[in-house]
């Protein structure tokens, strides 16, 4: 606007000058809108990581989204750039190149590279030593033959059935490309991030990684697949906009795990607190308490929303993140509104604060009636 004002000088009348400046303001807002959208698209496309504690085991994860920020702060430009190349290769699922590049970098600044390397190493082991099968045009499986006690055909059936259940429950018609990787039992150690299962949205497909011990129990395995495939669904339907707490709320409902019978050990989080709670240090006792409570609260929120309009409404809620018109998008950004605020209002006619407060009251009444 300042440049436009200088260029205009005194050569235009007051009315013409005002119209021109308003036009420049409009162009500026539109540019900012698309620039922010492009940044969001890059973040969504570069991959998002979500992990869940199956069998109440908590994972210690430095997520792919965290890599760039961590190394950008603590590493030199050259080192950070090298690790960003590793991240790029990993997100493209070029595991051999990512593994070789990570090996050449050592532990990285403050040892943060070990988190990255161990996760790549776990996936790389299955890729290089295991088998790969396409059970459907959109569904692929990677596994180590000597690690399974059940026939791979049975696992393929369980995976396909779990995905179909999620699609039916949430009215999800799409079949995005998915690769399911079953880790080696040797990867079930504390220093492997996400060793209890995660979903990462890579460039060629969504990748679901699960530990081999889950395959020993068909019920546990099916529940885990439902949970992780729900992350695939929320990402696809919300265009990568679904916040962590809601992503987990949908996944916990999809897994069909028993409803919580009370608050988690850290109590109830405010709207601004729940998302960051998932990122607590899971090596400490306090961190594990906070993360466990975050999953419990997300589960409660998910069940509460289901009580209002049914399971399929969670699917419509994900859709509401990505169905805005240009004008709606512009208005949301100008107001500085959270996308989940608009989506919740569209589907349930409730604000974000109202959902949190009413869910807590609803859960308290349910727990009181049970006792």
Q: What would you note in describing this structure?
A:
With 371 residues, the protein is of the alpha/beta class. It has helices at 2-8, 14-46, 64-74, 77-91, 95-105, 113-129, 152-169, 218-238, 244-255, 271-277, 285-309, 312-319, 326-335, 339-348, 352-370; strands at residues 49-51, 131-136, 139-143, 178-182, 198-201, 206-210. Strands 1-5-6-4-3-2 form a six-stranded mixed β-sheet, with helices on both faces. Helix 4 (77-91) packs antiparallel against helix 5.
State the separation between the terminal residues, measured CA to CA.
Answer: 64 Å
Shape: globular
Strand arrangement, major sheet: 1-5-6-4-3-2
Largest sheet: 6 strands, mixed
Strand content: 5-15%
Gyration radius from CA atoms, angstroms: 23 Å
At a glance:
The chain has 371 residues and is α/β, with parallel strands linked by helices. The chain contains 15 helices and six strands.
Summarize this structure as a short list of keywords or feature phrases.
371 residues, alpha/beta, six-stranded mixed β-sheet, 15 helices, 60% helix, globular, disordered N terminus
Outline the fold blueprint.
Elements: H1 2-8, H2 14-46, E1 49-51, H3 64-74, H4 77-91, H5 95-105, H6 113-129, E2 131-136, E3 139-143, H7 152-169, E4 178-182, E5 198-201, E6 206-210, H8 218-238, H9 244-255, H10 271-277, H11 285-309, H12 312-319, H13 326-335, H14 339-348, H15 352-370
Parallel strand pairs: 3-4, 4-6
Antiparallel strand pairs: 1-5, 2-3, 5-6
